[in-house]
Amino acid sequence: MARTRFAPDRGLTSRMVTTMFLIGLLYVVFVGVLIALLGEAWPLVILIAGGLFIAQFWFSDRIAAYSMGAREVTPQQAPELHGAVDRLCALADMPKPKVAIADTDVPNAFATGRSRNKSLVCVTTGLLRRLERDELEGVLAHELSHVAHRDVAVMTIASFLGVLAGMMTRMALWGGIARGGRNNNILFVLIPLVSALVYVISFLLTRLLSRYRELAADRGAALLTGRPSALASALTKISGQMARIPTRDLRRAEPFNAFFFAPAVTGESLSKLLDSHPSLERRLEQLGRISAELGRP
Known about the structure:
By secondary structure, the chain is α+β, with helices and mostly antiparallel strands. It contains eleven helices and four strands, in the order H-H-H-E-H-E-E-E-H-H-H-H-H-H-H.
């Protein structure tokens, strides 16, 4: 955690390294299978997929902002929001990210970007309307913790690789159809099966990392600000307000759950294994422990 005052988290670092290693290994196997199945058509598939991956990584902040309808705001347009980010960045001794606002009533926030110097923190208008100043600073500190720990970049890569599997499958099938021959039936069966397996494993790995990184960001924010209760209050308030948001808005936001401060829930989760965030109770319990530790002589 050089160059920032956010508390280092070795558990998060080891999980990020493990996740990227396993996903990287998974995709080496996946590409190897495609090469074996496609023969001479594989260079085009790899070239296109590689180009898409580089574009996603390089422009991840813009893509996420555009997808959420976020617009970058200046200090003149949002002085209180910029003031809070300025104070926290000075406290954490880290570069200030771009600041954006998404016009939606879903109370939430997210951070994205490939590095600390190329990052963006976005809050929704619904969040700004509902939170007090200290609660907002707790949420912003949580998002800045994601940027400082670099888990935003890891999640961006890991999440896109699942999408990449689907893209490569479609290109592989098109290549097989264009080539013709008796192997078409085999391609139509094997490639989707391999792709589905890769997607499921990638999905589960990113979910496991996502849950831990939220706890790490809560911990980092609470220790940086010294006010775990403000973050706990914001969590409780946002989670309670989600039930009042129209289902249509929640479904629109749900694909971004892994990046949000709190999940946009549309119903009960089928399994804790599939959740993008730890439970509210677990997050509040951790903040309670930190509050007790900070209150000790």
